């Protein structure tokens, strides 16, 4: 069964998705990662995406849907996908349903990590991601782990879009555009809301409880 993992930027979706991948043998499909990989490839589309993200905007549905479809058609991901950061609006939700139906797949669980704006600001401003292993740490909360990071702390980089104005803008945009999607999915029995401000281990345990039902 496939999983949708919701939460505003900085809610910890990526961290929890990694735990699910390791424990339940899933594949994390992050639209953010798909977009960043396209940027790294320095394609024409990647240049367009980089301009949007650096200005705190989201890539268009057309761009995201195209990249997403390429991944869903990969047979090794079949019914083992965690959708991280997608869908963000009703049109994307409908598009996801169409693609999954086309390949005889469905959504098994919808999980929403709910976190307030002030906590998001603190998390994102200190966020650093390793260029080698993709691990995410926080310079305020993970000082010891940063010093002892096995890849070397020189590989821990802040994202270009991590500044206070962009953070607030992205949070407000996400909550505004995603609310209709949350309202839509919240009517389903497979929808679960979790306090994303809780300790990471507690959140992980709650997610495991949901997936093991």
Short description:
This protein has 213 residues and is an alpha/beta fold. It has helices spanning 13-24, 31-40, 44-54, 61-72, 90-102, 117-125, 143-147, 164-185, 200-211; strands at 2-6, 27-30, 81-84, 107-114, 127-130, 136-138, 156-157, 191-195.
Could you characterize the architecture of this molecule?
By secondary structure, the chain is α/β, with parallel strands linked by helices. It has helices spanning 13-24, 31-40, 44-54, 61-72, 90-102, 117-125, 143-147, 164-185, 200-211; strands at residues 2-6, 27-30, 81-84, 107-114, 127-130, 136-138, 156-157, 191-195. The chain has nine helices and eight strands. The strands form two sheets. The protein has a five-stranded parallel beta sheet, with helices on both faces. A hairpin with a 5-residue loop joins strand 5 (127-130) and strand 6 (136-138). It is globular. It starts with a strand and ends with a helix. The mean pLDDT is 88.
């Amino acid at each position: 069964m496939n999983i949708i993992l919701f939460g505003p930027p900085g809610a910890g979706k990526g961290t929890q998705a990694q735990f699910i991948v390791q424990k339940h043998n899933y594949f994390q499909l992050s639209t953010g990662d798909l977009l960043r990989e396209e940027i790294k490839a320095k394609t024409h589309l990647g240049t367009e995406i980089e301009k949007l993200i650096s200005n705190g905007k989201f890539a268009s549905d057309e761009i995201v849907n195209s990249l997403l479809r390429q991944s869903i058609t990969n047979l090794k991901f079949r019914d083992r996908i965690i959708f991280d950061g997608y869908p963000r609006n009703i049109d994307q939700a409908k598009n996801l349903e169409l693609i999954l139906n086309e390949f005889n797949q469905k959504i098994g669980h919808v999980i929403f990590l709910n976190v307030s704006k002030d906590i998001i600001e603190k998390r994102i401003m200190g966020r650093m991601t390793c260029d080698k292993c993709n691990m995410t740490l926080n310079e305020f909360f993970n000082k010891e782990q940063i010093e002892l990071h096995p890849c070397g702390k020189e590989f821990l980089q802040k994202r270009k879009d991590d500044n206070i104005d962009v953070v607030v803008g992205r949070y407000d945009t996400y909550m505004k555009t995603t609310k209709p999607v949350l309202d839509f999915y919240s009517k389903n029995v497979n929808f679960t809301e979790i306090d994303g401000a809780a300790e990471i281990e507690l959140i992980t345990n709650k997610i495991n409880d949901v997936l093991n039902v």
